[in-house]
Write a structure and sequence with these properties.
By secondary structure, this protein is mainly alpha-helical. It has a domain of 64 residues. The chain contains four helices and no strands. Helix 2 packs antiparallel against helix 3. The chain starts with a helix and ends in a 13-residue tail after the last helix.
Length: 109
């Protein structure tokens, strides 16, 4: 039962955050507060996704965090570039890590 509820919350959280983002511009003077709330909600889900080793979900929520962070546009661009660089570096480490040598069965004859 708990696993099913977790799945429902996980699948519903992305549309909820995106729908909330549609109404952020209508909040007028409260727009920075709404953006901060969306960003904070996405940060919670990033931490949970990393803890559960669901890195695809963490990457999606990380993009939501960067888009709705109350920082300037230049900082957002550099954050996205930094995260893209970290993801590339992590993939390179995974691809080139040392593999154990295979012992050939018929090596001697």
């Amino acid at each position: 039962m708990f696993r099913m509820a977790t799945k429902i919350v996980k699948w519903a959280s992305v549309p909820v955050l995106l729908i909330a983002s549609l109404f952020a511009c209508c909040a007028a003077s409260y727009e920075p507060l709404v953006d901060f709330a969306i960003c904070l909600g996405a940060i919670v889900f990033v931490q949970r996704a990393i803890r559960l080793k669901e890195y695809f979900w963490a990457g999606g929520f990380l993009a939501i965090v960067v888009v709705f962070t109350p920082l300037s546009l230049a900082v957002k661009v550099f954050l996205l570039m930094g995260f893209a660089g970290l993801a590339t570096f992590a993939n390179l480490l995974a691809a080139f890590r040392a593999q154990p040598a295979r012992a050939e069965a018929n090596a001697s004859g």
